[in-house]
Amino acid sequence: MPIPSPRAWLQAHRTGLRRAGWTLLGLYLLYLFAANLFLNSAIGERVANRKPDRYHARWDWALSAYPGHIHASGVVMGGHARTNRWAVAATRADGRIRVLPLLGRTVSFGTIRAHDVSVHVSRVAEDKLPSKRGGRGWTLDFPAITTPSLLRLDFYQARVSGRGDARFVFTKQLQGGPMAVGASTLRMPEATLSVAGVELLRGGRLEFGLAIPAHIRERAQGREKFGILDAYLRAEGAAPAIDLSARHGEALPLDAPGQAGHLRADLALSRGVLRPGSRLDWSAPVHALDAEGRPVRYPLGAALRTRREAIELALRMPRTRPGAPWLQADLRVDDRRLGPDDWLRPVRALNGRLRTHWPQLPLRWIDTLLDDLAWLEVDGRGDLDADIVLADGQPRPGSRMDLDRLGLAARVLDNRFAGQAQARVRVLEQAGAPRTEADIRLRHFALGPEARPGQVDLRGRDLRLELVSAGPLAEFQQHLRARLRFEDAEVPDLRSYNRYLPGASARLLGGSGLASGDLHLDREGGMVDGHMRLRGRDVRLALGPSRLSGNVELDSRLRRLQVGERRYAVEALSVGLDGVRLERERGGQAPWWARMRLEQGELHWREPFEVNGRGTVEMRDASVLVGLFAERKAFPRWIGNLVDSGRAQASGRLRIRDQELVFDHVHASNDRIGLQARLRIAGGQPDGDLYARWGVLGMGVELQPGQRRLHLAGAREWYESRPALLPE
User: Fold this and answer.
1) Which of 177, 202, 360, 629 is exposed most, by the fewest CB atoms within 10 A?
2) pLDDT of 541-551, one tens digit each?
């Protein structure tokens, strides 16, 4: 049977072919209608945004010309995984989905090409936990996401802007399966690179590559991915200068607008290890001020070279004239690993020597290094002279650093000591172990409450702060012991210390004085023990309605009871009063004196103080004690004659708490009289009981707010029947 010709076959099947063609055309038109209706209606948006908290997408309009093909305009996508939030925007994008891989539970895209792309990745506080695993999940496969016009990439603190081409390769199996980043690249001929808002490169050439092998979350998550990735960075272009005059308050005083420096980098990482051959060269001017405040400029250069055995780093600032700063450092890092488990590993492996002399250097960077010592602040400018030899990241014995004219503040017990200081730091060797000592001296200083900036309670000279730490410098804060000392600092107005007294119950009305202190501090700046002294002149004090004046000398020794608290045992507290008068009884009364000692005491350092303890007093006579209850004319004449009759001794308990001052179990006596008393002053109002006896004679005074009542008959029994204010 002869084989029909193609023309004859077509003639014979013309009707069937026509029907098939119309059917295919109808199906195609149906696809165009259904697919584009899906893409450009709320239906497609709802499908794409089923879990908008984890993934969301929107587009202005979209088109599908054939199955699997998508063209979209005004595309914005974003998502949230763990503590990472990301967003991608493009003016338009083209791509296709491969149909056959869908049979194997794989969503595989062909090459996706996007235009005018911006990418933003940031870290947020909310931790979006991954979905629960449940069998083999679908696989997302992006063999190539490309763009010829990447405009901006924000990656945490880093930002790259310009216009370049990028390629990203990504595979991820859902429900806890492996994830991989293929060979991805970024190239920008005129890029601007900034980190934390500081431009490190402007208008320069930038190339970046990244690859991460397939891995599951348990092997590497978050920053741990740094230890398994391969990456390279090549950059060359204008770099920022260092501006120490305009940006002296910044820890990293880089000046972006000038871009007078130059950066050339060729760095490569393999599994988190810097590859041999990696190099970096940076040169830039340093803008500063000389001792007279005139602007000056110095050249600075840095070079990094990576050998197989170490990373070598050299810094140079030559001396340009007498008195100008200079810097010379030759350092070596014996570990090429850069890993998130210990970002300071290269610093701990640092060896070499650094020498510098730099007048009027901004010292904000020291405050950054003292981040673990929150109670110490260093700021302003100072003169630095240093010679430091490093071994395994630690200064060797013999290393030194001298600082002059630096601004220093120390916060101790809610007070702030501040002034201009000089510091001498030395690294010594003791019993074969390193020991770091810092001797800091404030020529002039002021003290004020931390909560009231600008208020000055104390002015003095020659404050000494000694810091001593055993062990390596990296553990300086852990082993720190400190001592703060000053002598005869001026207290211009004693009323500034009323914040420690119980309000209207006891307050200072005037006076000035001299104060001294010798405090031992722990690593947190808390007082471990202290010796404090105060000499007050023409002091006026109110105890409730009573007014006293005179001179005061106070000497106290405190010891902390428990680490982390402000409760102190009063190991010794003595108060000397001289020239004291009750102001309502000035006429003809000789000045009074007393010597007091507090024993078995405890002090809670807060505002106001809380004090408990037992004390003893030796005094000229008992006149002031009796005068706290009433004026002399309110008593029988024999009381006045007896209380003035000679030196008296007394003992009792004391408690100061909140707005209350309490004396109880007070026993006073001299050769002729015996006194017992209890007195509470709360909110400025006194109440209490007094019992005085002379031989067979006795008298009681009941003091209540606004009135006094004498008890003559049965005075002793009355007093003993009254309740105690404090326990024995």
Assistant:
1) 177
2) 998 888 899 99
